[in-house]
Amino acid sequence: MGMLEPQFFELPTLELTEKLLGKIFVHVLPGNVQLKGRIVETEAYSGTGDEACHAWRGKTARNRIMFQKPGTLYVYFTYGNHFMLNIVSEPENIAGAVLIRAMEPVEGLQFMQEQRGTTLTTNLMSGPGKLTRALAIDTKSNGKNLFNDEFFLENAPSLEENEIGTTTRVGISKSRELLWRKFILNNPHVSKGRVT
DNA sequence: AGCGTGATCTTT
DNA sequence: AAGATCACGCTG
After folding, report:
1. Domain range spanning residue A45?
2. Residue A54, CA: closest nucleotide via C1'?
3. Which of A3, A22, A162, A172 is deepest in the core (most CB within 10 A)?
4. Average per-residue pLDDT in chain A?
């Protein structure tokens, strides 16, 4: 299956949040080291009305990437330790993004194990801070897009509705009622204790 | 269940 | 300028 094209990302954020499940995220390091993970857990963050979205009050120095074209990477630093990986959604000048919360390791396991200091595959990428560490992603990648040979998504079949779980989002204090978290049911690589 | 760790944003 | 918050992960 080939690389996903820009048109794939032209969907409402919540729809894209589902469509990204099962797709293969690829980061190619210098020396042609290929790191690949299958996306198994995502969350939608979108514009006005969602107070948990960084951009709900408008554009700032940090969130400006959320206003760029769909398929752009929005990476930010939080809790003094962790980088969060998002894929921008919505047309240019409208804020939206999908937080990638967990992946299933597919290629580059040895590199990931060294990065993470563990060998247990269900612990390598089972959280948003874990997966950026495993994939060697930090704010240097903020603003890059998924249409080049460093970062891209490999296509894969979409999930059936009955294979997808839906809940409220994790770790937020505002807009807690929105059912904007999507994940692959019964997949052991979703973030800890949240497989169903 | 508690805490580290530092950028970002709000309030003074 | 100071204080609060934070789309988390690890130890205990």
Report:
1. 6-184
2. C7
3. A22
4. 97
What's the pLDDT tens digit per position in A31-88?
999 999 999 999 999 987 899 999 999 999 999 999 999 999 999 999 999 999 999 9
pLDDT at A194 > cutoff 80: no
The DSSP result for chain A, as a single string, is --BPPGGGG-S-HHHHHHHTTTPEEEEEETTTEEEEEEEEEEEEEESTT-TTSTTTT---TTGGGGGS-TTBEEEEEETTTEEEEEEE-SSTTS-EEEEEEEEEEEE-HHHHHHHHT---GGGTSSSHHHHHHHTT--GGGTT-BSBSSSEEEE--PPPPGGGEEEEPPSS-SSSTT---EEEETT-TTSSTT---
In a domain, A127, yes or no: yes
A137-166 residues near strand C (Cβ < 7 Å): none
CA of A127 to C1' of B2 (A): 20
Those nucleotides of strand C lying less than 7 Å from any protein Cβ are 5-10
Number of domains in chain A: 1
CATH number of the CATH domain containing A53: 3.10.300.10
